[in-house]
Design goal:
There is one protein chain. The termini are far apart. This protein has eleven helices and eleven strands. The strands form two sheets. Strands 1-2-3-4-6-8-11 form a seven-stranded mixed β-sheet, with helices on both faces. Helices cover 43% and strands 17% of the residues.
Amino acid sequence: MTTETAPAEVLLLRREGPVLIATMNRPERMNALGGGLPEALNEAWFDFKDDPSLRVMIVTGAGDRAFCAGADLRQNDERARALGAESAQALLDADAYRGIRPSFNGNNFGLWKPVIAAINGWCLAGGCELAMGCDLRVIEEQAQIGLPEVKRGMGAKQTTHKLYFLTPLSLGLEIVWTGDTLIAQTAYQLGLVNEVVPKGKSVERALELAQQVCRYPNTYLQYHKLRVFQSIGLPVDYALALQQRDLPHQSSEFREGLQASLGHWPPK
């Protein structure tokens, strides 16, 4: 096991074999997305995507208070006071629209490897969107999750479309329209998270899931994620037609698995 640290230590990276654990390390700001953390997450995104030895990524937060509280509003406020509100907003807008950036939420460069969110505390606004952008979510029993932007006159953005695939439409609309947070058990009942675990156990459980996934052929893992997202919203006949492209059954891993299965046939 090796440990690496991103610049300024705002993101801690640890490898557990083929699993990369990325820990947002700004506990004094409830791991809010500021102070270089978004840039560090983007860099880790690319490193994970392009490293064939890494197969699953876990994203979590440092400390026991928060997974991620979203944008660093205090930093944004300080910036606005220093530059003037209009100038600061213009810079934020320019940064947002200057080009396509890597994102767990948008998956805009084709990240077809599994990503798991280990939610260890408050998971709010942009932090909630980051968690929804992951493929699986494990939440600790004391944690709460939600999109409170509407209470500040701000609309939740990037991953709200995914919310309506995770929850019933009317409940998804209630979440974004009221801005109320959900306790862990309610989030589980609505389908927003996969599993609720005791306090302090989210990374441990996420690692168990990751290690289980890593036992299976990478070809299949990436194929299934790709096809699921490509099929969403398509008519059934179109979606089924996609299954005829780049079948994992043509891989060497499938042949090896088939030979292993035939070696145990017929069952005794």
